[in-house]
Amino acid sequence: MIRQIEPDKLKECMFNTYCELPMGIIIMNIKQEIVEVNDIVLELSGYGREELIGKQCQKTLCPALKGNCPGSSPKELVNRDKK
Known about the structure:
Layout: H1 7-20, E1 26-28, E2 34-37, H2 39-45, H3 49-52, H4 57-60, H5 74-82
């Protein structure tokens, strides 16, 4: 049996799962600006959430990877969306 979940309940469930994962998770937008991080990232990096949100990942968490981010580049995201 498949049941429909209310959008707000689904968001809450996804957020709780994201917060409880035993690994650091960084969510970035297409400009590679940090949109959200979980508590593991904060523990590992020593940064506060407000210090990271809105900043580019390469300028805060991984400056050695500037221009070579292991995540998808904006160009790859655009190309993937067109398929």
